[in-house]
């Protein structure tokens, strides 16, 4: 494992400091960076929220969160002491212009340090918070602002938010986070494609039959029903994580890793996505909503029970997407994500075409086309299935066997999770793993076409049992094209 490089001093302000994201992801990530001594002693973390409480009370809240989200073996009294030494809490309604005085007392001007404002709040508050920071004189040349997804609920609202934030911060200081881009296995996509001579010559419609991207979750909406119900799976997962994954799979090689080189290639993919219309939305998309069922033998309630009422939000979506360009014409990208599926598993499947002719004869067994399985989580790894002769006598028999790279077996150390990496990138001012405004806009343009088509075709979510792979139409989406979801084969 490479050494951790310390980052320059910073002040890191988290708005929404008592929210789910801060407790579940941000504070654990910062704790791990403390443990690995990546933060200099004088750097400070300031959590902000409306809850009226003291710094000591906030520390108790974070201690409780870390017990839940960090394994016991990784918790250490000495690290905790250092961490709380830099962690303060400020009670503030950041949507109101007055009251920023206490926050400003915590911020250090002296050493030109990076000042990060992380907006882990509802996006509807982003504009007001930025304006108030500016009015309070807290925006200086060393600031960066981090925006959590989803930015808006459609293209128009995203543009409004981006305009409001852009009125205070220049584009190169705005870090739109998509935590999937911070995952090691996602970053490895570029290395796999562009660091090996093997794949790129085959990475096109001549050799690729289709691509599948699945992010299955066994959890439900986990107390976030209020947010989730206004969002649904399409906005929550596809507008951001899926389209970023699709871009990394489909884009042309960038000339270098410079952030704009990569983003320029990604945006071309987003703009090449074929819009979905009311005429084809039923053939190309599936909406589902879970009902009660069982996961690992444990009964779980349905979405309406968790929500406390009926709803039209989809908790599962499957889409046949098409990238209309020279490389990908005629190659479907099947996307699927859902809550309360049988297991947690995210993977990208590159299904290659079959060889044109078998020289082995019928008795040898069926020749199966090569398949590259990129496992994003859990059990990160890459598997390439290849046809192999079964050793021994008894005639020529063939079998598809995987070449298997497992991260856990190959890289034994713990590596930082996505948020740890991304938070330190913000401090360093490195935006390459963050989304540029035009990417968000292009992604929304395609999502808006689906939302409008669902509306026009009056397409409501179909029920599926918790613990299943979704409504039958999800399987039919591929079956109509004579294909199957990868998991359906095991
Ligand atoms: C978030 C979504 O962005 O990603 C959640 O809002 C989802 O609904 C989560 O559960 C999945 O992230 P991960 O890293 O667990 O795959």
Give me the secondary-structure topology.
Layout: E1 10-15, H1 20-35, E2 44-49, H2 55-69, H3 77-86, E3 87-91, H4 101-106, E4 114-119, H5 126-135, E5 143-147, H6 155-166, E6 174-176, H7 184-194, E7 208-216, H8 225-250, H9 259-272, H10 281-284, E8 285-291, E9 293-295, E10 298-300, H11 303-307, E11 316-322, E12 332-338, E13 345-352, E14 371-377, E15 381-389, E16 398-406, H12 407-410, H13 418-428, H14 437-456, E17 462-465, H15 472-479
Parallel strand pairs: 1-2, 1-4, 2-3, 4-5, 5-6, 7-12, 8-17
Antiparallel strand pairs: 7-13, 8-11, 9-10, 11-12, 13-14, 14-15, 15-16
Helix pairs in contact: 1-2, 1-3, 1-13, 5-6, 6-14, 8-9, 8-14, 9-14
The structure holds 6-O-phosphono-beta-D-glucopyranose.
Can you give a write-up of this model?
By secondary structure, the chain is α/β, with parallel strands linked by helices. The protein folds into two domains: 10-148, NAD(P)-binding Rossmann-like Domain (Rossmann fold, 3-Layer(aba) Sandwich); 181-479, Dihydrodipicolinate Reductase, domain 2 (2-Layer Sandwich). Helices cover 35% and strands 21% of the residues. The protein contains 15 helices and 17 strands. The protein has helices at 20-35, 55-69, 77-86, 101-106, 126-135, 155-166, 184-194, 225-250, 259-272, 281-284, 303-307, 407-410, 418-428, 437-456, 472-479; strands spanning 10-15, 44-49, 87-91, 114-119, 143-147, 174-176, 208-216, 285-291, 293-295, 298-300, 316-322, 332-338, 345-352, 371-377, 381-389, 398-406, 462-465. A nine-stranded mixed β-sheet has the order 16-15-14-13-7-12-11-8-17, with helices on both faces. Strands 3-2-1-4-5-6 form a six-stranded parallel β-sheet. A two-stranded antiparallel ribbon has the order 9-10. Helix 5 (126-135) runs parallel beside helix 6 (155-166) and helix 9 (259-272) runs parallel beside helix 14 (437-456). The radius of gyration is 24 Å and the shape is globular. The two termini are 34 Å apart. The site of 6-O-phosphono-beta-D-glucopyranose has 4 residues, from loops.
């Amino acid at each position: 494992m490479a050494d951790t490089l310390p980052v320059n001093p910073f002040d890191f302000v988290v708005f929404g400091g008592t929210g789910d994201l801060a407790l579940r992801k941000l504070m654990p990530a910062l704790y791990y960076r403390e443990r690995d001594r990546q933060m200099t002693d004088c750097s400070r973390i300031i959590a902000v929220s409306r809850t009226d409480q003291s710094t000591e009370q906030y520390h108790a809240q974070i201690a409780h969160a870390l017990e839940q989200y960090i394994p016991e073996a990784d918790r250490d009294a000495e690290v905790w002491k250092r961490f709380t030494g830099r962690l303060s809490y400020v009670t503030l309604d950041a949507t109101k212009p007055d009251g920023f005085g206490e926050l400003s007392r915590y911020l250090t001007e002296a050493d030109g340090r990076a000042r990060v404002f992380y907006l882990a709040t509802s996006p509807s508050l982003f504009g007001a918070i930025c304006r108030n920071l500016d009015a309070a004189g807290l925006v200086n040349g060393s600031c960066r602002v981090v925006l959590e997804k989803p930015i808006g609920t459609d293209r128009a609202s995203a543009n409004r938010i981006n305009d409001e934030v852009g009125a205070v911060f220049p584009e190169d200081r705005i870090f739109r986070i998509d935590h999937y881009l911070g995952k090691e296995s996602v970053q490895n996509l570029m290395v796999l494609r562009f660091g090996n001579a093997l794949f790129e010559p085959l990475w096109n419609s001549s050799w690729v039959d289709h691509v599948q991207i699945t992010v299955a979750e066994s959890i439900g909406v986990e107390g976030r029903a209020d947010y989730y119900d206004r969002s649904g799976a399409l906005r929550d997962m596809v507008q951001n994580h899926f389209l970023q994954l699709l871009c990394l799979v489909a884009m042309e090689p960038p000339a270098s890793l410079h952030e704009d080189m990569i983003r320029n290639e990604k945006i071309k993919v987003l703009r090449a996505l074929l819009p979905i219309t009311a005429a084809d939305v039923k053939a190309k998309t599936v909406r589902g909503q879970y009902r009660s069922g069982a996961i690992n033998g444990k009964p779980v309630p349905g979405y309406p029970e968790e929500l406390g009422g009926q709803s039209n939000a989809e908790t599962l979506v499957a889409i046949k997407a098409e990238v209309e360009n020279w490389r990908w014409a005629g190659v479907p990208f099947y996307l699927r994500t859902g809550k309360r599926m049988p297991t947690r598993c995210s993977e990208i499947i590159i299904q290659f075409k079959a060889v044109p002719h078998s020289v082995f004869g019928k008795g040898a067994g069926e020749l199966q086309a090569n398949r590259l399985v990129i496992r994003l989580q859990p059990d990160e790894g890459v598997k390439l299935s290849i046809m192999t002769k079964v050793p021994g006598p008894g005639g020529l028999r063939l079998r598809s066997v995987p070449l298997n790279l497992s991260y856990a077996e190959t890289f034994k150390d713990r590596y930082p999770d996505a948020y740890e990496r991304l938070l330190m990138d913000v401090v360093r001012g490195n935006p390459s793993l963050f989304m540029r405004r035009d990417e968000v806009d292009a992604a929304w343009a395609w999502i808006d076409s689906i939302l409008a088509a669902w509306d026009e075709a009056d397409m409501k979510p179909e029920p599926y049992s918790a613990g299943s792979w979704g409504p039958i139409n999800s399987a039919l989406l591929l079956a109509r094209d004579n294909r199957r979801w990868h998991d359906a084969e095991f």
